[in-house]
Amino acid sequence: MNKTIFILIAALMTACSSSDIIYKPAEQKIPQHIKKLSIKTFDNKTHQFGLEEKLTLKVTDEFLKNGEHAIVTENDAQGIIVGEIKHYILTPIQYDVNMVPTVYKLNVIVSVKFLDKPRNTYLWEEPALQATKIYSAPFLPGGITEEAARQFLWEMIAKDIVKRTTEGFGSATSASPRKIPSDIKISTPTNSTPAGI
User: Fold this and answer.
1) Phi–psi pair at 44, nearest 5 degrees
2) Which of 165, 153, 155, 164 lies closest to 87 in space, CA to CA?
């Protein structure tokens, strides 16, 4: 008996060590009842004028390119992307001998939620989607303008939002806390003994 148990344990240990154990959480994609999406104009909490329109247009374009869901007005939508531009930070990080900035770092942080309109509940939230671009000043070879750097970031953020929506939990690059929404009830097991035991 003891020899049989020992052989089973040894076989189990060999099987575990020879194969990789991969953690793959269940996907959290858009429910089947959501076929039409709307992208609400992003709120702009920064001092930069006009960022919200360009980001909203880019996110809309990415969803249209993806083609999995129809993009409609907010009244006709079953799912709504709601977002806010929280931070826009442009920092010179390199200077020439005359102390003129030659390299910049542009960092944008956006908060995004997905509203299930028929159920009036948020299905997911990414509170800190972040995109960064380091670029040379436009007067240098290969340099670009701040506007061109912004366009690059809008594209990165828009792709992350579409990916998060279509591919599910863990697919975007947010520094999000991973938690179960507060409106979901979790039943805890009791210590009572089942009947008949």
Assistant:
1) -115, 105
2) 153
Q: What distance in Å separates the CA atoms of residue 163 and residue 60, rounded to the nearest whole number?
A: 13
| Confidence band for 10, pLDDT divided at 50, 70 and 90 | low
Range 7-35 average pLDDT: 64
The CA radius of gyration of the chain, in Å to the nearest whole number, is: 24
**Residue 196, in any domain of the structure:** no
Average pLDDT taken over every residue of the chain = 83
Angle at 92 between CA 86 and CA 93, to 5 degrees: 110
Q: Are 83 and 122 within 8 A, CB to CB?
A: no
Classify each residue of 45-83 as buried b or exposed e, where b means 16 or more C-beta atoms within 10 Å of its C-beta.
ebeeeebbeebbebbbbbbeeeeebebeeeeebbbbbbb
- Model pLDDT for residues 73-99, shown as the tens digit of each residue: 999 999 999 999 999 999 999 999 999
Structural domain count of the chain: 1
Residue 123 in contact with residue 28, Cβ under 8 Å? Answer: yes
User: Residue 76 domain-assigned?
Assistant: yes
Instruction: Measure the CA–CA gap between 136 and 146, rounded to whole angstroms.
Output: 10
What CATH number is associated with residue 42?
A: 3.30.160.150
